[in-house]
UniProtKB/TrEMBL annotation:
Ribonucleoprotein found in the keyword field: yes
Gene: rpmE2
Protein name according to UniProt: Large ribosomal subunit protein bL31B
Species of provenance: Streptomyces fagopyri
PANTHER family: 50S RIBOSOMAL PROTEIN L31, CHLOROPLASTIC, LARGE RIBOSOMAL SUBUNIT PROTEIN BL31C
Subunit structure of this chain's protein: Part of the 50S ribosomal subunit.
Lineage per the UniProt record: Bacteria, Bacillati, Actinomycetota, Actinomycetes, Kitasatosporales
Length: 86
């Protein structure tokens, strides 16, 4: 491996906002926010919307997706292009 070409990894806390779970791991991600961890040390904090703690694939829970509501919302927001009639 060539020296000095890889970013520095350090301990970082990732907090899953959906499941209200936090975990300490190593990462190259940077954050200006910090959190005091269970060991008494302060680490950078990165909030994520979904992780293995809340993702349906890992939890076994499925979510019902309202695709009709999404389509209607999209059409209201952006309008529907009129299709040419023959």
């Amino acid at each position: 491996m060539r020296p000095f070409i890889h970013p520095e990894s350090r301990p970082v806390v990732f907090r899953d906002r959906a499941a209200d779970v936090a975990f300490l791991t190593r990462s190259t991600a940077r954050s200006s926010r910090t959190i005091e961890w269970e060991d008494g040390n302060t680490y950078p904090l990165i909030d994520v919307e979904i992780s293995s703690a809340s993702h349906p694939f890992h939890t076994g829970n499925s979510r019902v997706v309202d695709t009709a509501g999404r389509v209607e919302r999209f059409e209201r927001r952006y309008g529907r292009a009129a299709a040419p009639r023959h």
